Amino acid sequence: MMKCEIRSLENKKVGDIDLSTEVFGLPKRVDVLARMVNWQLAKRRAGTHQTRGISLVSGTTRKPWKQKGTGRARQGSLRSPQFRGGAIIFGPVVRDHTIGLQKKVRKLALKIALSSKLAEGKLIVVDSLASKEMKTRLIVPRLKKLGFENALFIDGSQVDINFALAVRNLPYIDVLPQQGINVYDILRRDTLVLTKAAVESLEQRLK
Fold first, then answer.
1. Interior CA angle at 34 toward 28 and 37, to 5°?
2. How confident is the model at residue 1 (pLDDT cuts 50, 70, 90)?
3. Considering the domain 2-45+98-206, what is its CATH architecture?
4. In a 10 Å sphere around its CB, with 0-12 CB exposed, 13-18 middle and 19+ buried, how is residue 118 labelled?
5. Checking DSSP bridges between strand 151-154 and strand 173-176, what pairing results, if any?
6. What percent of the chain has pLDDT over 90?
7. Where are the domains of the chain?
8. DSSP secondary structure string, 89-134?
9. Residue 160's pLDDT is what?
10. Nearest to 130 by CA among 159, 171, 167, 173
11. What is the predicted pLDDT for the residue at 6?
């Protein structure tokens, strides 16, 4: 177990929490993180890009000119790629970009991402994200005081609606429920902020 202090959104220490070494104490492995990020980014690709092959180009099927005797190169179709408006050769086609990655590797990557943030001193545990106001101008000074200008906030199973509304217009702040936590979002933000409820859920899920 590793001890970590719990802070409030007013930047006051409100207690301590024990973090499991099984989830937050793993050594950093860039290869596993890279595989996971590639898997995530490949999965979100639509794969709907397509160019027209010769079978998709509309036009005549007539032979442009006779095979021999004209002095020009032989041609079989005006829909061929060498003609204007013709086909595209070896262009992109509709396909699935997803790649395979075992569940245990995905689980390991998430634990490594959490561990690396803790090792770098960029994992903060807060007691709660509950906020009475849903005004951006009121929440920004509190986040600046805490040093959360580029951060990912992970709440419990339900994100506090007032906090989510207050920060949704801030460009470098993301808020997710604990079931939506992922390696890519952890790595793309400088600081990872977990609520106490999120820590308990993640340890139960990843142990």
1. 120
2. confident
3. 3-Layer(aba) Sandwich (3.40)
4. buried
5. parallel
6. 59
7. 2-45+98-206, 47-96
8. TT------------HHHHHHHHHHHHHHHHHTT-EEEES----S--
9. 85
10. 159
11. 87
